[in-house]
Design brief:
homodimer, alpha/beta, Aspartate Aminotransferase, domain 2, four-stranded antiparallel sheet, 12 helices, 13 strands, about 15% strand
């Protein structure tokens, strides 16, 4: 006999993170498995943003840069994110978008290997990462080379021409997790530097950048960090590179003395040199507020639950969905999987639409991937049960076959 | 006899823009002349942001990208800004910060002049502009050259090596206004392209990019556009360049089909190719909402009042402040002046602090500049009278000489 909803309820009962869910304002009747696209809103964010807009901006005006501490906000947010990615707070900058930060760090990394000519990336990584690697290579007069996706092929491509290896930590379609220590060590053995994209891992895994001796990383504020739509991104530079790293977007906030308005650009001594222009303060302060949802939450507990949710999902998939033509598009081994389970189905788009109509929000990635983000802070074991049961029912009843579910529109 | 407060009140009475001031939530007892640092909050912004946070994000979640129209927000904001800078809406992108957009457009412009080796900029322009020009030149292997500040010297430096001339439209210290048609024509006569920084002119002048045949421009959302702290910036590309311009920050939102997640980067056919990553939506939607303050306001009326406010300020300065050791740091001729009057005084820092203590907010720029932004949408002629009268009084009473006003701290 298969796993029951009662068994899942018992897992929720025993879940040490179960109470954290109450920190989020999840709408009634919705099961939200799309935190890898946009995280839900922590409950305390609206009061903070009201204060920022209606008091700090409205009454404080320009004085709030000092009086309300806006000018230090990027550093405060950095400290909160650093803990979640295994870094110290002086190694993390919060600024701009993931893509912009990627460009900064690719150029910075290439400048540390001036005798090398290749920016290497993985064949199946997120499109923006590919586009930016190719563009950075063009600007610098270097070669962008892709290899993999097989790990051995990727590592085999690390030769003496490679300046930087840019890798996505967790694949945005399959949820496959790349072994950070292994790839980092391989890059270093070849004399290259490594740059990790943590968009789909920060906030749901026990990311250990310092422990893996990573060089650089970027990541997203609006997915599993729940910072709100388009929240600022982050950039990590290992402490050993901080004194020498030179990034190309040399805006005034990256200056050693931004308010001196000096003629010459002198980079800030530490991680602040990753800053460029004035940060979008409403979005940045929403991210700061949202990160309080992680207060007191242990990374080991997050990783334990992210894996357990995936294991339950895959077990239920095996028991109930294989017969409907679904196949598993994620690694079965929890060690190799991020906090996500993806299924493939030729009718994937219509099935996702049917689920959304039932209040179960996952998302679809072409050509046939149904993607379910399992954020340990607010997803329950019973949610996982319910989504699999719903798919079983949708297929058994032919619900996906309604005309309104069949025509693709813009999806995010 | 000098100009009286009654005469200024009569000018307010006759001012066709006087009612627009009620669109702003200006705190009681404050005269705000620092819109060139951070614009004040339009009254209707809080309700919009509450809805964005507490309904669109909280309840709509990822569905709001389509259902609440987030995905089209950059284009909606572009259309509003285009009107204020003399462009068509398909020539303006809203994205990232001014500095990041400057980098994009400098690289894009240089690529249109592949046989030329110099990025030219003006000696006294805003520091970020200098830093980014120098960095873009370094990345591209070109030379950054500065000339001026004298207009003839600047134009004289335009030779056959110059790919791009990057100029600040209104000087951030003096408020001096560069003649856009003259410099643009001179750049073109030399075969170069021109890039204007409109940070201190968009929203307070009748900027005419298309009329001047400008090539590129960038500008700020949080100064005279009143979009809130760190609001997204804008970038302008003249229609004739749209089909060929290639910028280096090739993030997914600049792709022709962002949601296809294609392997190859194919730039969006029009201005959307200036986009990079996901925009900070709270800050972007605050900017959109704030721009409604310009509804129905004519650019000619804005320019008329910006000049008249400055003329009144300078007349009152001549009558009341010359004897206290102030000198005029802005052009006396309204034709050559942006929407700002700056004075110089060796005790400038202490005088600005004394004014702030009286609720009159201007700002200080080293070494000795007192800067007063005269935004026609909310500054009154009587405000101008009151600030000059206050400075007269502060000097006559020696108020600036209080210890609490004498020690510089961080200023923004």
């Amino acid at each position: 006999m298969g796993m029951t909803r009662q068994e899942c309820a018992a897992l929720d009962e025993a879940d040490g993170l179960a109470d954290i869910r109450h920190r989020f304002a999840l709408p009634e009747g919705v099961i939200y498995l799309d935190g890898n696209s946009l995280g839900p809103m922590p409950r305390h964010v609206p009061a903070r943003i009201r204060h920022v807009v209606e008091t700090e901006w409205s009454d404080g005006l320009v004085r709030s840069w000092n009086d309300a501490g806006w000018i230090e906000a990027p550093r405060r947010v950095s400290a909160r994110i650093a803990r979640l990615i295994g870094a110290t707070e002086d190694e993390v900058a919060v600024a701009d978008s993931t893509s912009v930060n990627l460009f900064k760090l690719l150029v910075a990394a290439a400048r540390l290997r001036p005798d090398r000519s290749v920016l290497l990336y993985a064949r199946d990584d997120f499109p923006t990462d590919r586009y930016i690697v190719e563009s950075a290579a063009e600007v610098l007069g270097l070669d962008a080379v892709c290899a993999g996706p097989d790990p051995d092929a990727l590592i085999g491509a690390l030769d003496e021409r490679v300046a930087v290896l840019a890798l996505t930590h967790v694949d945005y379609r399959s949820g496959a997790l790349k072994a950070m220590p292994r790839f980092t060590a391989a890059a270093h053995a070849a004399g290259a530097l490594i740059l990790w994209d943590l968009c789909h891992s920060a906030g749901v895994l026990d990311v250990g950048l310092d422990a893996a001796h990573a060089d650089f990383a970027v990541g997203c504020g609006y997915k599993y960090l729940n910072g709100g739509p388009g929240a600022p991104a982050f950039a990590y530079v290992a402490g050993r590179h901080l004194g020498v790293v030179r990034q190309p977007l040399t805006g005034w906030l990256g200056h050693a003395e931004p308010f001196a308005f000096a003629r010459e650009f002198i980079a800030a001594p530490g991680i602040d040199r990753l800053q460029c222009g004035t940060p979008p303060m409403l979005s940045l302060l929403a991210l700061e507020s949202a990160l309080e949802a992680f207060d007191g939450v242990d990374l080991a507990a997050i990783r334990f639950k992210s894996r357990a949710l995936g294991d339950v999902f895959i077990r239920l998939f095996g028991e109930r969905l294989g017969a409907h033509g679904f196949t598993l598009a994620s690694p079965r081994d929890g060690e190799l999987r991020g906090s996500q389970v993806s299924l493939a189905h030729p009718r994937g788009y219509a099935v996702i639409q049917s689920l959304i109509a039932r209040g179960i929000i996952g998302d679809f990635r072409p050509p046939d991937i149904l993607r379910f983000g399992l954020a340990p802070l607010y997803v329950r074991y019973t949610d996982v049960f319910d989504v699999v049961a719903a798919m079983d029912e949708i297929m058994a009843r032919g619900e996906w076959n309604q005309p309104r579910f069949l025509s693709p529109k813009t999806v995010t």
